[in-house]
Amino acid sequence: MTASSRPALDAVVVGTGPVSFADVVAVARGGAPVVIGEDALTAIDRARAVIEELAAGATPAYGVSTGFGALATRHIPTEMRAQLQRSLVRSHAAGSGPEVEREVTRALMLLRLSTLATGHTGVRRETAQLLAGLLTHGITPVVHEHGSLGCSGDLAPLSHCALALMGEGPVRDASGALVDAATALAAVGLEPVELAAKEGLALINGTDGMLGMLVLAIEDLRRLLRTADVAAAMSVEGQLGTDRVFAAELQALRPHPGQAASAANLVRLLADSGVVASHRGPDCNRVQDAYSLRCAPQVHGAARDTLEHAATVAGRELCAAVDNPVVLPDEGRVESNGNFHGAPVGYVLDFLAIAAADVASMSERRTDRFLDRNRSHGLPPFLADDPGVDSGHMIAQYTQAAIVSELKRLAVPASVDSIPSSAMQEDHVSMGWSAARKLRHSVDGLTRVVAVEVLTAARALDLRAPLVPSPATAAVVALLRSSGVAGPGPDRHLAPEIEAAVTLVASGAVVTAVEEVIGELQ
């Protein structure tokens, strides 16, 4: 059964317009099947006709009748052009290192298919349909960590995927078992393709890997930045901070939209807090809170605005047809171009790593304040049950600090580190794939740092009893307690509790618990 003949009830349809963020997530993480729309198949056929006419002509055309990269001056005779495409894919499938995550490979396959469906690449419809078939049947080629310079696109990762279409190379089947591509295709009734003129190049010349990782990171960071607001509110509350600095009229004096959204979240999260109300009276002698508490909306807001800029760039890329050369079927010609350069994506991937590091750095500082008896306003040292005998959350902060240090290293931009390749023909590259890989580590690190803050703040709020936290923050404490994380007491094995908190943050359960009480956060 081919992908186009499978029921499309819950399928992502490619070619009816640009794929959406939701489409990418559904296919990459949800395993959604994929079909190609009829209009897209027609567009594919039109572009293919142009390629076949060029292939039959005497005029050299890059990618059709010439070599590649620095070898583009070599004219390839007609009888060797099928071998040219096979050789291209085999030689470029040169990745090395650990296997990348299934969701990354599925995302890049979907995005390559999206470009094929624009009718600007010149592949045959059966080639595009086979790529859709792999996605639909859960066949995932093995793609490696290292190999892409992000220009001419993600060549090595995409070549490993193209190799599978030829029935070659290792893949994971739907169960996750490692098998050879020919076996996996045969098991689901699919047949390999014999690549024709230009098809090998069209399958590998795109920014799909770095773009797929950007879209997935945006999905994660939108959730994480809301969770960071929750964690900050718990810390402001637990450290007897004030919510007055988050007032809308103060935030409006500096009209950044992300800042306003974060501050509005903090106001709602702290509403009806007995802890905050307990020190609002005239006898409170604290003039203002530390920056890590008072400036949370400014930092979280800047990260939000950076994230939305990245989302704008990703949205434009999802509308793009990235290939070289590109087919212009209305004009009946093929033209070389530089649209495969990953700079637009690489830059924002690096921007997001910077934002993630800074949000995590502020989160760690808020956690540390809980543990220092000189700054915690009456809480026991390290929130320990019997300080000296017990160490409380002392080493949980060490874990945070270690991760934050790593995040700062990961914030060093990859996109400025071009290394020439292909005998100086490709003399400036984006390193966008590398930027995307380190951003994935940054997202994981931020998740863990925020989780430790939530864990620590919940313990502090319990220690503030009989003062009652806000309904929103109390819901987070209750979520932790119902998830196997006990309240204050003598020291116990802390790593499982940290992992439980990480799971709750990563899954969105923390945000969900809050939103069930106060409605949707911004």
Structure report:
Mean pLDDT is 93; it is low at 1-9. This protein is mainly alpha-helical. The longest helix has 32 residues, at 432-463. Helix 4 (102-116) runs antiparallel to helix 5 (125-136), helix 15 packs antiparallel against helix 16 and helix 15 (343-371) packs parallel to helix 17 (432-463). The chain is elongated, with a radius of gyration of 27 Å. The strands form four sheets. The chain has a three-stranded antiparallel β-sheet. The chain has two domains: 3-206, Orthogonal Bundle (Fumarase C, Chain B, domain 1); 214-278 and 287-414 and 428-466, Up-down Bundle (Fumarase C, Chain A, domain 2), CATH 1.20.200.10. It is built from 20 helices and nine strands. The protein starts with 11 loop residues before the first strand and ends with a helix.
Defining key terms:
522 residues; mainly alpha; Fumarase C, Chain B, domain 1; Fumarase C, Chain A, domain 2; 3-stranded antiparallel beta sheet; 9 strands; 54% helix; disordered N terminus
What's the architecture of the largest domain, going by CATH? Up-down Bundle
CATH class of the largest domain: Mainly Alpha
What's the structural domain tally? 2
Largest sheet: 3 strands, antiparallel
Q: What helical percentage do the residues reach?
A: 40-55%
Mean pLDDT: 93
Topology:
Layout: E1 12-14, H1 21-28, E2 34-36, H2 38-56, H3 81-92, E3 96-99, H4 102-116, H5 125-136, E4 140-141, E5 144-146, H6 155-165, E6 170-172, E7 178-180, H7 181-187, H8 199-204, H9 208-238, H10 248-251, H11 257-270, H12 274-277, H13 291-294, H14 296-318, E8 326-328, E9 333-335, H15 343-371, H16 394-410, H17 432-463, H18 471-482, H19 495-507, H20 509-518
Parallel strand pairs: 1-2
Antiparallel strand pairs: 3-5, 4-6, 6-7, 8-9
Helix pairs in contact: 1-4, 3-6, 4-5, 4-9, 9-11, 9-14, 9-15, 9-17, 11-14, 14-15, 15-16, 15-17, 16-17, 17-18, 17-19, 18-20
